[in-house]
TrEMBL record:
Organism: Salinimicrobium marinum
Identification of the protein by name: TonB-dependent receptor
Topology class, membrane: Multi-pass membrane protein
Stored Gene3D superfamilies: Carboxypeptidase-like, regulatory domain, TonB-dependent receptor, beta-barrel domain, TonB-dependent receptor, plug domain
GO cellular component: cell outer membrane
InterPro entries (alphabetical): Beta-barrel_TonB_sf, CarboxyPept-like_regulatory, Plug_dom, Plug_dom_sf, TonB-dep_rcpt-like
Subcellular location: Cell outer membrane
């Protein structure tokens, strides 16, 4: 800097501490000093002012030397108008009233950005992250408000925030439950970054509760989205005391199960295989333990759980009904921590440890059951040889690489084993792996690359007495890659765009003899392979203060790949093995069949009042993979099938319209949401279909149309001693199977209720806090009984008696209702203690209702008799101990 002054014969005025600790070298000849200074200061917060033989450096701001004489003493409105005339680039100077700006000593002043008259705007973006000063973890849902205005924002799950501010002086206030309240004086000259490190504030917990994001149900554009509070579900009484994110989700309107203990979910009239369940962007194919009694997702390792049942954002694809997007929480990078529970049949322990202080951490969660030990300890001989066990392991490594790059690596494995007969052992396992590299390119542009692999496998080991021992099973493997970018175009447009692809490898089924004396003949169904890809773009566009639109477009493609064969059936005849006229053979990775099409995702919010909005949405979706099952609910024995030349991809269009209202300072949330959905190529089956180990599976499959509609009502109370929600939905789910032949037509081609059609679904979840340590919780559920096909008569033919059945799903099993209660006891709230404890004493099915899971019919003594099976027909008491340190 001194050399420039000497060479140009100029005096340069500056403070040495302003100069950056970086070097810059360049050679100049016959170059004006203005060009040299601009290049020298380009990547700094410094500006310069050339005054005859002097250069004056300024930090952040710009010196102006041209103001009209009448400027001083005028009103703010008048001076703004004059400044606009004076500055050709329409960029107002930044003025600070130092008399008014004299702040208390505890208010820090920060200058952001570098003034540039050529920007042509007087509003700039301030962004950054908010983390805990103790462990470096991001603080989500923290409110940042601008004092003296109605501007504000909140941090996302990664602690990131962004807000647009007017040039000049702004006071930014942070507010969050459990963290200190801070105020910073921010003088902003251009786009820039400001990060916060906040200390925990224990002294204010008894007096101040600061919350943010409570009006998102009214203000956000996305319709039909729900978020499950993972921490709060500990108070909801569930069977055997297990916290269960998915079971709690089923108490929300529009989400139901086929029955008690059933795996899988039916969302807005859709099949269970039409839900995309993601853990850190990787697919979980069977998210259940113990036939659906327990969830396969560990609540202690889960950070967030978001459900999309209406508007499905454009970045998701491949399923018709919903997306369950679950993310594991980040491990602590500063302190060793843990959480666990001990229940009547399960134990759970999660540990977190820093690997590199303030940069990297590792979390490992292990959950297992000791039901095998319980069964072997019983006096009942018939149960001692039975087996029923499961375990799951979740691990996550998170690493902050530099200021703008984050690496997250997740792994998950679960294993179930059970036998319901003395000769068969069933087992299945989930395995997934996920790597996400996220990067912030600048204050407006960020994104990431995601690589995933999911694997699901089911096996049966049979040991009989007649030389027919065998091992049978199937497997599906999915490998995916995704690029997901976010770009804030301006204050009205926030873009998301990217592309995704996944490779499917399916082993449909095989059976192999075990032992040298087994008479079983080996059989293996050929492997299926397919590739699915999609490209997407979405824009959340603020039209005006009242209208917000989230519009997305996705184009998806699918190709069925060889090695394989395609059977061509005779036209004008039903699909049977006898009607095959030709078989086409395809080589390895040769394209056998392609599908694809556009998917439109649009959702809009219009504010009728500040706390009242109306939302509408339209979604179209393709699904290229199908679950093959003749069971009403998800079963481990389900198999999977990719779309091919015979079985077409499923398609759906959904329309929704709803009202959303908040009351009494966001204490109450009210929503009334209606939807109508049409579907094509819905998969169903012929009567008595044989699906497992069937090389000509397409001869058993029927595809038809679906139609579902409903109204969902939800009221939540989020504050006070009494909190919880009440949900009710009236819905219909119908299907039409109308083929060209009688065996491909069901119920004369008319629409009939699907297996999971339950018109009335009512639930209440409530928690009442007696004191800070003691609370009561309750859970009540009522549902219409699901459809069933009954025998309605019998007849004799050729001296044999046959049963005549009703139309498919013409009748219903009895209605379902259940009441659960629990007493929750928190440990004391002393700071200096080894761990914080929590007891839950609950009774599941307090009324002892013998709710039917299924109704079946058996011919005995020349008489057809009906039988009912139930899962829990008596009250089930449970005591669970939880601890956290």
């Amino acid at each position: 800097m001194f050399r420039i002054g000497e060479e140009a014969e100029l005096e340069i005025f500056f403070l040495p501490e302003w100069l950056p600790q970086t070097s810059f070298s360049a050679n100049y000849s016959n170059t004006h000093v203005r060009q040299i200074m601009e290049e020298l200061l380009d990547n700094t917060a410094l500006n310069y002012y050339l005054l005859e033989d002097r250069i004056i450096l300024t930090r952040n701001n710009v010196l102006y030397d041209d103001l009209p004489e009448q400027f001083f003493g005028m009103s703010a409105e008048d001076t703004a108008g004059i400044i606009n005339e004076v500055n050709e680039k329409d960029h107002l100077p930044v003025f600070s009233d130092w008399e008014k700006s004299s702040s208390p000593s505890n208010v820090e002043s920060v200058n952001i950005g570098k003034a540039n008259p050529a920007t042509g705007t007087n509003r700039f973006f301030l962004s950054g992250t908010v983390v805990s000063a103790v462990d470096g973890k991001p603080i989500s849902n923290l409110a940042l408000t601008v004092q003296g205005s109605d501007q504000g924002t909140a941090t996302n799950e990664n602690g990131f925030y962004s807000i647009q501010l007017p040039a000049g002086e702004n006071y930014i206030k942070t507010q969050s439950f459990g963290y200190e309240e801070t105020v910073k004086r921010v003088v902003i000259y251009n786009d820039g970054t400001l990060n916060f490190r906040l200390r925990e504030d224990y002294e204010q917990l008894n007096e101040v509760l600061l919350e943010s994001g409570l009006d998102e149900n009214v203000s956000q554009a996305v319709s039909g989205a729900e978020e499950v509070d993972v921490e709060e579900i500990k108070n909801i009484p569930l069977v055997l005391g297990e916290r269960d994110i998915l079971k709690v989700s089923a108490t929300l309107p529009g989400i139901s199960t086929a029955g008690e203990g059933a795996a899988g979910f039916n969302v807005r009239g859709g099949r269970a295989d039409q839900n995309l369940i993601l853990l850190d962007n990787a697919v979980i194919y069977n998210p259940a333990h113990f036939f659906g009694i327990f969830s396969a997702l560990n609540p202690f390792t889960t950070g967030t759980a978001n459900i999309y049942k209406g508007h499905i954002p454009a970045q998701y694809g491949g399923r018709l009904s919903s997306v369950f997007d679950l993310r594991t929480k980040k491990a602590s990078t500063s302190d060793f921590a843990g959480e666990g529970s001990i229940g009547p049949v399960t134990g759970n322990l999660t540990l977190e440890a820093p690997i590199i202080k303030e940069k990297a951490g590792l979390m490992v969660g292990v959950r297992s059951t000791y039901s095998d030990w319980i069964l072997k300890s019983l006096d009942e001989e018939s149960l001692k040889d039975n087996e029923a066990s499961f375990y799951d392991v979740t691990a996550k490594y998170n690493h902050k690489i530099g200021e703008n790059t984050d690496l997250d690596v997740s792994g998950y494995y679960s294993k179930d084993k059970f036998n319901i007969t003395s000769d068969s052992l069933y087992s299945y396992n989930n395995r997934l792996f996920s790597v996400e590299l996220g990067h912030r390119f600048n204050d407006r542009h960020r994104g990431g690359v995601i690589l995933t692999n999911s694997n699901y496998q089911f096996d049966i080991d049979y040991t009989g007495e007649f030389s027919n021992d065998f091992r049978s099973g199937y497997q599906i493997n999915e490998t995916g890659a995704k690029i997901h970018m976010r770009y804030r175009l301006n204050k009205k447009n926030s873009l998301q765009y990217g592309l995704a692809s996944k490779l499917y490898l399916i082993e449909p089924g095989s059976i192999k003899p075990t032992g040298s004396e087994s008479a079983i003949t080996a059989l293996s169904i050929p492997q299926e392979k397919g590739i699915e890809a999609g490209i997407f773009v979405a824009d959340e566009f603020q039209v005006n203060e009242k209208l917000l639109i989230n519009a997305g477009f996705r184009f998806s493609m699918f190709a069925a790949l060889g090695k394989g064969e395609e059977r061509i059936y005779q036209g004008g005849a039903p699909k049977r093995e006898s009607s095959v006229v030709e078989i086409n053979h395809y080589g390895q990775n040769e394209v056998m069949k392609t599908y694809g099409g556009p998917e439109v995702r649009v959702s809009a919010r219009y504010l009728l009042q500040e706390d009242l909005s109306v939302k509408a949405s339209y979604n179209s979706v393709y699904q290229y993979i199908h679950t093959l099952s003749t069971n009403t609910t998800v079963s481990p024995t389900d198999t999977y099938k990719l779309s091919d030349g015979t079985i077409k991809p499923q398609k759906a269009n959904q329309y929704s319209l709803g009202l959303f209202k908040n009351f009494l300072d966001n204490t109450y949330e009210l929503s009334l949401d209606g939807y109508y959905k049409t579907s094509d190529n819905i998969v169903d089956y012929k009567v008595g279909a044989s699906l497992f180990l069937n090389p000509t599976i397409e001869t058993e499959v029927l595809q038809g149309k679906g139609r579902s509609y409903g109204v969902e009502f939800l009221v939540k109370k989020t504050k006070g001693k009494l909190n919880g929600w009440l949900g009710y939905s009236y819905s219909k789910s119908l299907i039409q199977l109308k083929g060209d032949f009688r065996e491909e037509t069901v119920n004369n081609g008319e629409y009939f209720p699907s297996n999971f059609d339950k018109p009335h679904d009512f639930s209440v979840v409530a928690n009442y806090k007696l004191t800070r340590r003691f609370s009561f919780s309750g859970n009540f559920v009522y549902q219409t009984g699901r459809p069933i096909t009954y025998p309605v008569g019998k007849y004799n033919y050729n001296n044999s008696e046959y049963v005549m059945y009703s139309n498919r799903n013409e009748f219903r099993i009895p209605d379902y209702y259940r009441l659960d209660l629990s007493l929750n006891i928190e440990g004391n709230h002393r700071i200096d203690k080894l761990a914080h404890s929590f007891w839950s004493i609950s009774v599941y099915n307090v009324l002892g209702r013998n709710n039917p899971y299924s109704v079946f019919f058996v011919t005995k003594d020349n008489e057809v008799k009906a039988y009912q099976s139930s899962i829990f027909s008596i009250p089930v008491p449970t005591i669970t101990y939880n601890f956290k340190f």
